[in-house]
Amino acid sequence: MKTVTFNDALEVVESLPEDQRESLLEIIRNRLIEERRDKLALSIKKAKVEYQKGKIRRGTVDCHVPDNRDHFIPR
């Protein structure tokens, strides 16, 4: 397979009729959305596995960080 540079790709796209460029833009946009959705789904799946293994705890920061403010208040 021949390697195509970014500039070569732009030239090819610019040579297309306007309606085909618009279709290409829509296709690329939809594929990017799909890629992001797939990455998010994978991230969620990994987080669920880690949660089930006990590597992740549910809650707020206040729930998991001890209250050490007394150490910083001058007396």
Write the layout of secondary structure elements.
Blueprint: H1 6-15, H2 18-52, H3 61-64
Short description:
This protein has 75 residues and is mainly alpha-helical.
Shape type: elongated
Structural class: mainly alpha
Count the domains: 1
Strand fraction equals under 5%
How many angstroms does the end-to-end distance come to?
Answer: 73 Å
Spans of at least 5 consecutive residues whose pLDDT stays below 50 are none
Oligomeric form of this entry? single chain
Got a strand count?
Answer: 0
Tell me what you see in this structure.
With 75 residues, this protein is mainly alpha-helical. The protein has one domain (6-72). The chain is 65% helix and 0% strand. The protein is built from three helices and no strands. The protein has helices at residues 6-15, 18-52, 61-64. The protein starts with 5 loop residues before the first helix and ends in an 11-residue tail after the last helix.
